[in-house]
Amino acid sequence: MALADAPVLDCGGRQLTLDRPRIMGVLNVTPDSFSDGGDFFSPQAALEQARRMVGQGADIIDIGGESTRPGAEAVPAAEELRRIGPVLEVLCSELDVPVSVDTSKPEVMTAAAKAGAGMINDVFALRAEGALDAAAATGLPVCVMHMQGVPRTMQRNPVYGDVVEDVYGFLAERLGVCERAGIGRERLVVDPGFGFGKTLVHNYQLLGGLQRFQGLEVPMLVGLSRKSMLGTLLDRPADQRLHAGTAAATLAAWQGARLIRVHDVVATVDAMAVVAAARDPEALLG
């Protein structure tokens, strides 16, 4: 699927046209996320940060109420809803861009859709009991991600035959499951799941082989921002991985990624402008 094919996601009535790589701004309302845990816990702080990211060029905001960093413990649905509910209500009423909800729980998916969310982003690829039916009923676009294991244990000893082909096969299978559950292909997005049950080598094999995932013929989302695959490579803490993350996002976009999930919007917007210009230089003429 070439970028010129420009799929459009109907995010609860707000159209997100993927004619170029679009920026998904990360907004965690958790006490323990690896990069910004606790920073945007209140609705007002979350709204201010979301407005800041939109002003910088974010096309969609992704809100999460449960940390999925390596080693993270699961939280009950009631606690996740307590965290995101007030924030989601404010964001959906105040922002002009869609709001995605990063969740794997069917109860949260249903409540988020009722509150005005425009997309479901599920690191478990709708494998939780009831998640397929709940996601289908929302009518929203759904991103299904690959993860080997669960966050608490996923980094202990991930093993693959061929990581690119194994992840591709998993995502192809989940797309089929989703379609059979009533989630049309026009609603589906895939994420290869950088850092989710992958070693350092696996992550860079995936990054170098992302073009393969265009064969799935649905948009691809990538989340590389501030991740340990960058920090381990360069021996830098999370708040010093901007340049590496921008380079990784550029490589991903060049290989067809259409949604780039990031904490640092400005640098990524600039990088995506360069990617777009290189893909279609004639557009610069007029």
Structure report:
Helices cover 39% and strands 15% of the residues. It is an alpha/beta fold. The chain has one domain (9-270): Dihydropteroate synthase-like (TIM Barrel, Alpha-Beta Barrel). Helix 4 (131-138) links the parallel strand 6 and strand 7. Helix 1 crosses helix 2 (77-94), helix 2 runs parallel beside helix 3 (106-115) and helix 3 packs parallel to helix 4. The protein is globular. The protein starts with 7 loop residues before the first strand and ends in a 7-residue tail after the last helix. 48% of the residues are buried.
Order of strands in the sheet with the most strands? 8-7-6-5-4-3-10-9
Radius of gyration over C-alpha positions, nearest whole angstrom = 17 Å
Q: Span between N and C termini?
A: 25 Å
CATH architecture: Alpha-Beta Barrel
Please provide the count of β strands. 10
- Total number of helices: 9
Q: CATH superfamily, called what?
A: Dihydropteroate synthase-like
Task: Output the keywords.
alpha/beta, 9 helices, TIM Barrel, globular, 15% strand
Record the SSE blueprint.
Elements lengths: L7 E4 L2 E4 L4 E7 L14 H14 L3 E5 L12 H18 L4 E4 L3 H10 L3 E4 L8 H8 L3 E4 L17 H18 L7 E4 L8 H9 L12 E3 L4 H7 L7 H13 L4 E4 L2 H15 L7
Parallel strand pairs: 3-4, 3-10, 4-5, 5-6, 6-7, 7-8, 9-10
Antiparallel strand pairs: 1-2
Helix pairs in contact: 1-2, 2-3, 3-4, 8-9
